[in-house]
UniProtKB/TrEMBL annotation:
Protein name per the record: HTH lacI-type domain-containing protein
Molecular-function annotations in GO: DNA-binding transcription factor activity; transcription cis-regulatory region binding
Gene3D superfamilies (UniProt xref): 3.40.50.2300, lambda repressor-like DNA-binding domains
Presence of keyword Repeat: no
CDD domains (UniProt xref): HTH_LacI, PBP1_SalR
Length: 339
């Protein structure tokens, strides 16, 4: 049976239920047993059924179109975020409109008025750093477009949002370095326009302060979430007269760059220098040594953000904090003086 000919009747027949019950499950309405709901979802997946967006739009007030706007220098992060959003939209019979809002380099953005003025768009997902741009938020609010922000730093009550606890995660991975015996820890900051960069710095600094470990200004280098910036920062850190024994980079791209700089200088990772990152992108497990890092739930945050817009009546709160995980691999060892 071809995918474009599958109907709700086919799903109902395979699941052994009525078309009304299938419709209730598709619309995420209550009154359906969990066992029946799973049986219907299995039938939908087996038949690759996609609801008819045009018919649903004509029948109700929704357009079944969501928007996603972005300006993120990290292509790997953006790829995972887009994959999570697209998967959830497709699974729930929605189309996704994607638009890039470009910065002028001074915190102002070229706003896509075509997207904002598009008739009947059901809502827009805003990942960092756009999620903290007052100009964009005001434009969407004035247009009456629902929005969900991902990892905002400011105005938490402005709209529903999804995030993880960046500060606590950064503190935990710093504690791991401290427990390995490191007392000289360098830090490569993330892009200053991203709220998560500040939170990760605060978490790292608080963990060091808890153990009375100093953090010299020279150990703090400004990166921009790019491999190139991480490379330059790591060169400065390892070029110090008293270099750190460990480097915490605010994302995996910059951590990978730090490992490259160490190898270029003839240093062994982790025997001579330990390196940790943040995100757990595919890169983290393909470089050598494999990277110790924080696994950020990027795809899960994207799916939850879409869920806020697709099923707004099902949300118990206006925010959702997802769990992270410390991933321990081979890029960390005790400093040489302790081995």
């Amino acid at each position: 049976m071809k995918k474009d000919k599958v109907t709700i009747q086919d799903v109902a027949r395979l699941a052994g239920v009525s078309m009304m019950t299938v419709s209730r499950v598709i619309s995420r309405k209550s009154g359906v047993k969990d066992t029946t709901r799973r049986k219907i979802q299995d039938a939908i997946d087996s038949l690759h059924y996609q609801p008819n967006i045009s018919a649903r739009s004509l029948a109700g007030s929704k357009s079944y179109f969501l928007g996603l706007i972005y300006d993120n220098p990290n292509a790997a992060y953006l790829s995972q975020f887009l994959a999570g959003t697209l998967h959830h939209c497709n699974r729930n019979g929605y189309n996704l409109i994607i638009s890039s809002f470009e910065s002028d380099g001074h915190g102002h953005y070229q706003i896509d008025r075509t997207l904002i003025n598009r008739a009947r768009i059901d809502g827009i997902i805003i990942p960092p750093p756009l999620c903290d741009c007052v100009e964009i938020l005001t434009s969407l609010k004035d247009a009456g477009i629902p929005m969900v922000r991902v990892a905002p730093q400011s105005q938490p009550d402005y709209s529903p949002f999804v995030c993880m606890d960046d500060r606590r995660a950064a503190g935990e991975i710093t504690e791991y370095l401290i427990n390995q015996g490191h007392r000289r820890v360098g830090f490569i900051q993330g892009h200053p326009d991203h709220g998560a960069s500040k939170l990760r710095y605060e978490g790292m600094k608080q963990a060091l302060e808890k153990h009375n470990i100093p953090l010299p200004d020279s150990y703090i280098q400004q990166g921009y979430f790019s491999y190139k910036s991480g490379f330059a920062c790591a060169e400065r850190l390892l070029g110090l007269d008293d270099p750190p024994t460990a480097i915490f980079a605010s994302n995996d791209d910059m951590a990978a760059a730090a490992i490259s700089v160490a190898h270029k200088a003839g240093l062994s990772v982790p025997d001579d220098i330990s390196v940790v990152g943040f995100d757990d992108l595919p890169l983290a497990s393909t470089i050598w040594p494999r990277l110790t890092t924080i696994r950020q739930p990027i795809m899960a945050m994207a799916e939850k953000a879409a869920d806020f817009l697709i099923y707004p009546d099902n949300q118990e709160t206006g925010d959702h904090i997802l769990d992270y995980k410390l991933i321990i691999r081979e890029s960390v060892a005790p400093p040489k003086q302790l081995t």
